[in-house]
Write a structure and sequence with these properties.
Blueprint: H1 7-20, E1 25-29, E2 34-37, H2 39-44, H3 68-78, E3 84-91, E4 98-107, E5 116-123, H4 125-169, H5 173-198, E6 204-205, H6 206-221, E7 228-234, E8 238-239, H7 241-261, E9 269-278, E10 281-288, H8 293-296, H9 304-315, E11 319-324, E12 329-335
Parallel strand pairs: 7-9
Antiparallel strand pairs: 1-2, 1-5, 3-4, 4-5, 6-8, 9-10, 10-12, 11-12
Helix pairs in contact: 4-5, 5-6, 5-7, 6-7, 7-9
């Protein structure tokens, strides 16, 4: 059986808590009158103890504490029906509004007539202002970055058009081929920029991205779509924007290579871009049913495309292998999360 604490002893203990509080704090009686306040409370709210002690909390200052919701919460806490835990409110006075976080706890002395309420107050005004400024800056940065992505994509398309026009005007077949290659690469990067802008800076859904990328490549390089088809088979995986950049460039190089070498002499065929993931592991492959490695790669020398694919695969910590089909070839980019980074490097495909 609990024993009632003598009122004088109880108040002495509560006053000791208030006196030692580094945070603004008030001790209230059963009528919500202020018994005492901490020094930090008077300092924070520019009040004098003699003007506060014995008065209802709702009469403090110029009445800015007299808010119906606060009154209800304090009363319910005294009655034992509620407890104020991190209640945030706005205190409006003569100066700028302040954001406060309140915590209130009823002190139990074993005597209902000696109810006391300990109210602690934290001023989070500066923290909320900082949070708002940070959020505003992030939103502004996101808007500016999306605008930059749109501008870059538009500029790349203009450059691609200039390259294509130049390719029509040059006399050298070798120069024309180089300009066409440059045009295709610029168009793929422009497509990537558009996809990143559409993703709103979040993760990029690969099936849609690869489809759009291949449509762009097919539109610029396939003259007869009834003869050569470019198909994407991907699961619903999404990756971060930086990883999508690397994967998109790999697909671009491998598709360009297949379109250039796999179907000589107007040979019909199909190119398949396939991507599937299992948690952290994934496999990207580009395959064709063309003439195969022995003809399309026999005399090829390592070039820009080969260097790009190799560098991007290393960046993604992935292996690159080439598999001969019947007919055609498949280039496989394989990332295994548990792959030993010290293992012997696999043979890289000779992509040009």
């Amino acid at each position: 059986m609990s024993q009632a604490v003598h009122p004088d002893v109880a108040d002495s203990l509560a006053l000791a808590i208030i006196a030692s509080s580094a945070a603004p704090a008030l001790l209230l009686d059963g009528a919500l009158n202020i018994i005492a306040g901490s020094t930090s409370f008077y300092r924070a709210f520019l009040l004098q103890p003699q003007n506060v002690a014995g008065r209802p909390i709702f009469a403090v200052g110029k009445g800015e504490w007299d808010m119906p919701q606060l009154r209800s919460l304090l009363t319910a806490t005294l009655d034992g029906h509620a407890r104020i835990d991190s209640y945030e409110m706005e205190l409006k006075g003569d100066a700028a509004p302040r954001r406060l976080v309140l915590n209130a706890q009823k002190l139990h002395y074993g005597d209902a007539d000696q109810a006391r309420l300990l109210l602690t107050i934290s001023d989070v005004t500066e923290a909320r202002i900082s949070e708002k400024l940070k959020d505003d800056l992030l939103r502004e940065k996101a808007i500016l970055l999306r605008e930059l992505q749109h501008r870059v994509a538009n500029s790349l398309q203009i450059i691609a058009s200039v390259l294509l026009q130049s390719a029509r005007n040059v006399q050298s077949d070798e120069a024309r081929n180089h300009l066409h290659d440059a045009h295709n690469r610029v168009m793929s990067i422009a497509t990537l920029q558009q996809q990143l802008a559409a993703s709103r800076l979040g993760d990029v859904e690969l099936k849609g991205y690869f489809t759009q990328l291949c449509q762009s490549l097919g539109a610029s390089m396939i003259h007869n779509h009834d003869q050569i088809s470019l198909v994407v088979d991907a699961d619903g995986s999404s990756v971060s924007a930086d990883i999508s950049v690397s994967l998109g460039l790999i697909v671009t190089e491998l598709v360009i290579n297949a379109l250039k070498h796999a179907f000589p002499g107007e040979r019909p065929g199909k190119i398949l871009v396939d991507y599937h993931a299992d948690k952290a592991d994934w496999v990207l492959s580009v395959s064709d049913d063309g003439v195969g490695t022995s003809q399309s790669f026999a005399d090829a020398k390592p070039g820009l495309g080969s260097s790009i694919v190799e560098a991007l695969a290393n960046q993604l910590d992935a292996s690159v292998t080439i598999e001969e089909g019947s007919p055609g070839i498949t280039v496989v980019i394989n990332h295994t999360h548990s792959r030993d980074p010290k293992a012997e490097p696999v043979e890289r495909p000779n992509v040009v």
